[in-house]
Amino acid sequence: MGTRSAAYTLKLTSLHDYYQRLLHGTQPIPSGFDMANTVKYFSQTLLSLLKEVRESPLEMIKSQTFDGERMALYPNLDYKQLYNALTQLIDVVSLVHIGLAAFGQALLQCLACLMPFLEHDLLDNMPYLTASSISVLPVELHQEIVNYLCFYILPFTITRKNIDETENYASQSISAVIMMVFQYSSNPAHHCQLLECLMALKPGVVKDILCVVAYGTAPARASAAKLLFYYWPTFNQNLFDRRAVLMKFANDLAPFVCQRDSCPNAGNAEAGKVCYDHRISITFAAESPPPLYLCIECANEIHREHPNQTFNDILHPMQQVSMVCENKECFDARISFIEIVETIYIDVFNDS
Ligand SMILES: [Zn+2]
Ligand SMILES: [Zn+2]
Ligand SMILES: [Zn+2]
Questions:
Q1: Residue 336 C-alpha to ligand 3 middle, in angstroms?
Q2: Nearest one of 42, 24, 34 to 79, comparing CA atoms
Q3: Which Pfam families does the protein's record reference (predicted)?
């Protein structure tokens, strides 16, 4: 424990040193590759600490009530200091000239690994912090930023229950998150992905979209207005074909793939299931933060080995969802798929 703690503190000093050098332009300017390696050390350390935990931190994170209990699951390292160091680096990231993408990738991964170790106020800030990295990280990381938000950050932050039953700050920050992504990503598929994720997690996202329409920058408000009308349920399904419109928005939608290290589909199969057990997750995907997203084949395989584990369905992009009821003997072939989707969303709310 003593050596682990000493190594951790020493690496924190290097992060601080990177920040100082970048800020003051002191030679040698650290390269993104060096920084990425240091940040990866933290991701690996956090995952190995998490793997030793027998309780369910991903279950506990759902409510502020368990924060004390959850924080007591881990050895006494300075997680807040790591969070602060990463935040500082985001501020100076535009001064990194070589290996920026490598650093950005390591940074996003580390933030997601750090989630279960964070206390209330820092968790609250995670969605906006992650979203704001889109303003400084290169375009090739935009899809990854949206994926981290949708699959690792938002599901564990905006639905968290505050002790005093008020809406948490993470949930209140959603209009700012949407604004960031709509402003800096020029890919409409990212906008659709973010909104569809939010609709499943937060009631009344329409107010956040309206907020972007009202106060966003020109590109953000244009996209928000289009998508507001796009996702608004139609009263008459025959008026226009949603799919045709959606194709225009989302034809570059990149599927989120199976994260298992030894997936037989080698990272090409779309994830359809999620397992919230952090130990299963780290066992089968040694470098990914939990939860574990799996293709159907891997989920079945792991389920055979671990029959007591639960594998939950994940929402597929609306693009893949049928517009009308798929039952051939349906009494009403005109039933709108939006109604079906709404029913799914209502289920999600009632479950949580
Ligand atoms: Zn797989
Ligand atoms: Zn499914
Ligand atoms: Zn039907």
A1: 9
A2: 42
A3: UNC-79
Are 85 and 12 contacting, i.e. CB atoms less than 8 angstroms apart?
yes
> At what angle are helices 32-51 and 100-114 packed, to 10 degrees?
20
Which residue ranges make up each domain of the chain?
1-129, 273-351
Q: Would you state the torsion angle of the CA atoms of residues 181, 186, 188, 193, taken in this order, to the nearest 10 degrees?
A: -30
Residue 79: CB atoms within 10 Å: 20
Of the ligands numbered here, which is closest to the C-alpha atom of 334? Answer: 3
Distance, in Å, from the CA atom of 83 to the CA atom of 189, rounded to the nearest integer, reads 30
Residue 260 alpha carbon to ligand 1 centre in Å: 6
| Residue bearing the bigger pLDDT, 319 or 103 | 103
Residue 146 pLDDT > 80: yes
What's the CA-to-centroid distance between 109 and ligand 2, angstroms?
25
Write the pLDDT tens digit of every residue in 235-290: 555 555 555 555 565 566 788 999 999 999 887 899 999 999 999 999 999 999 99
Q: Which ligand is nearest to the CA of 344?
A: 2
Residues that place a CB less than 5 A from ion ligand 2:
272, 313
Pairing type for strands 312-313 and 292-294 reads unpaired
Q: What confidence category does residue 347 fall into, taking pLDDT thresholds of 50, 70 and 90? A: very low
β-sheet bridge partners, residue 313: 273
Sheet strands side by side (includes 292-294)? 292-294, 273-275, 312-313
Distance 293 CA to ligand 1 centre (A): 8
Distance 150 CA to ligand 1 centre (A): 19
- Give the distance (Å) from ligand 3 centre to CA of residue 203: 26
Q: How many whole angstroms from 106 Cα to the centroid of ligand 1?
A: 23
Q: Give the percent of the chain with pLDDT over 70.
A: 85
